[in-house]
Amino acid sequence: MATLLYRLGRGSMRRRRLVAAIWLVVLVGLGLAAATLRGPTASNFTMPGTESQHALDLLDEQFPAAAGATGTIALKAPADGQLGTPEGQAVVQAITQEAATVPGVVAAVDPFQVGAVSPNGRYALIQVQFNSGADGVTDEQRDAYEKVGGQAEAQGWQVAPGGEVLNSEPEVGSTEALGVAVALVVLVVTFGSLVAAGMTMLNALIGVGVGMAGLFALSSVVELTSTAPILALMLGLAVGIDYSLFITSRYRQNLLDGLPADEAIGRAVGTAGSAVVFAGATVVIALAGLAVVNIPFLTVMGLAAAGTVTVAVLVAITLQPALLGFAGRRVLPRRLRSTVPVTTSADRAGEDGVTTDRAAPAAATLAGENRKAFGFRWARLVTRFRIPVILVGVLGLALLALPAPDMRLSLPDAGTAPAGSAARVSNDLITEGFGPGFTGRLAVVVAGDDAQATAAAIPQVTALVQRTENVLAVAPPQLSPDGRTALLGVIPQTGPTDPATETLVHDVRASVGGIQSADVLLTGVTAIGIDVSEKLSDALPIYLALVVGLSILLLMLVFRSVLVPVKAALGFLLTVAATFGITVAVFQQGHLADLVGLDTPGPLISFLPILLVGILFGLAMDYEVFLVSRMREDFVHGDTAQQATINGMGHGARVVTAAALIMISVFGGFVFLDDPVIKSMGFALAVGVAIDAFVVRMTIVPAVMSLLGKRAWSLPRWLDRALPNVDIEGENLRARLDDKVTV
What we know:
The protein is an alpha+beta fold. The protein folds into four domains: about 1-45 and about 175-365, Up-down Bundle (Multidrug efflux transporter AcrB transmembrane fold); about 50-165, Alpha-Beta Plaits; about 375-415 and about 535-725, Up-down Bundle (Multidrug efflux transporter AcrB transmembrane fold), CATH 1.20.1640.10; about 440-525, 2-Layer Sandwich (Alpha-Beta Plaits), CATH 3.30.70.1430. Helix content is about 65%, strand content about 5%. The chain has helices spanning about 1-15, 15-35, 50-60, 85-100, 110-115, 140-145, 150-155, 175-190, 195-220, 230-255, 260-290, 295-325, 335, 345-350, 360-370, 375-385, 385-400, 420-435, 450-465, 500-510, 525-560, 565-590, 610-635, 640-670, 675-710, 715-720, 730-740, and strands at about 70-75, 105-110, 125-130, 160, 410, 440-445, 470-475, 480, 485-490, 520-525, 605. Strands 6, 7, 8, 9 and 10 form a five-stranded antiparallel beta sheet that branches. A four-stranded antiparallel beta sheet has the order 2-3-1-4. Strand 8 (about 480) and strand 9 (about 485-490) form a beta hairpin. Helix 11 runs antiparallel to helix 23 (about 610-635). The two termini are about 25 Å apart.
């Protein structure tokens, strides 16, 4: 692989104008396609194979009028008892009639007809039924719905439209640009060159632009959840910058070693580019592997993010060499540019491309400085006190992981929406006037073979549900026009994310499971959230085992070792456990929640843990390969295991530190968004990268490698013969090129 990438890097540099033009055409073409073909994103989470989804499908087929999105308008009169007066009733009826005229609304239910009035006569709820699902409600319809009751508000009433109809796509604003700005500063400090920093950032942004444009162009034929583009943007930015950083760093080092420009680029892409391809492949495999969970929206999220990572890799190994060719030696700090001649292999060795002069005055000048760099000093310290370092590191991460077993999962609800949002105001008003159960209504679907069977089953179902613990009330049934399907509203005593509500869902299903005269199914937004969370929780251990097994296999191919992959996998598990623990402590338990702008702690979004495992796996392998491959390279070339560990850390620490800081800043930029789902994703990824890079890969790993010594690189002969040689470090490439050098 290294040889192929070496040729690709040199070819991209020599034909840099063509390569740049091709990527520009691709970017513009996909941008136009995205602008013309972009479809809406979905805010619902379907879950085939669950009872709640089966019930929704049944409603859509037999009772479509009840299958559309619902809204709830919460009303609060200026004083207690005012709803009992003729004037108060007139206001409520006027609001109800206004809601019924909203485009797309098929019915608005008068609260006095169904008893949706609080005992103190101050609060009322108007149920609104739309003719399409939440994703089918247009912005114009949603705006008209939110404006209902404006005249009553002028009279001192509080009118708060809410419900699933207000679900909308999270907005990506200017806050995440702060993360990109921080990343640019890190690049400038790392390279000491504005040209190198700007070119690396430009390369990453082009890759993100291509990936996101392609994703939106496909959104007209593939249903994307509202969080899928955000996740793709997060990963595309982070890995795009990091991958370009790795190749640029190796190119600069090759220039300082005295290599001509095209040879420096070729070797950079052949070595660092191999690590980029491997790291990108692991991320793509892990994200695409989400399909094994068999949850459509999660599969689409994983494939969308995998697509942007793939584009980032392709851009890094083709466009980056072209841009490096344009930049020349300006990627170096000014004080070093004069020491590096601007030549190509052909200039110095003829058309065979063999370098004849390997003098490296700049590299020699910097050699002493490098040995005194922080990376070398840190490596010597860690390897000297390896036992205490391992103990402190492992125990510290174990302590951070303590909250993880208490993790609770659910889909987002209005109770955790940003304070001041329309959905949150309505939710709080309903809770204030009626209790938390009214914000998480359940729905029982009764479907018989005919109207008589359904009518006979309804009293039995109602009685069984009413006797279930934690049920506050059962609403009268709504019947389909043919009478075959009925919908009963069930109001719990507890809120939608309360563990007692989850127990209630199971109890209701168990109590009505024995009815034979009709199909009885429990659904509703709350029930769907519980079903999704349980299925994802069941899939997480399987997926984690798959990822860990994959990491051991892949690293065994790379490092020709058994102990190194096992050590890497155990470090990954430490990272995941600690990240889960910190995220639970902040977002669920509320510790230090103010620091991330979280006003209401609650359960974590259902798909966060499984996504976190997939993404962190790829990123962890990225840093593992970059650091440990240099250790193996020096060990193979004659260094002791101890010195090889120090050299690997010393040479790689600066780049890995920069790469980690960039990822942390990009992911951290999303923490400032108001949407709690995106906020938690950005936070968990930023924390996970920080732990894995600085605690696991740059502290525990060198300590363990030092402890293992040369045993770390042992591999049974039969296994060595069975495993293919993928040559990630470009060892065979360097050997072939060095043999051709004429001294």
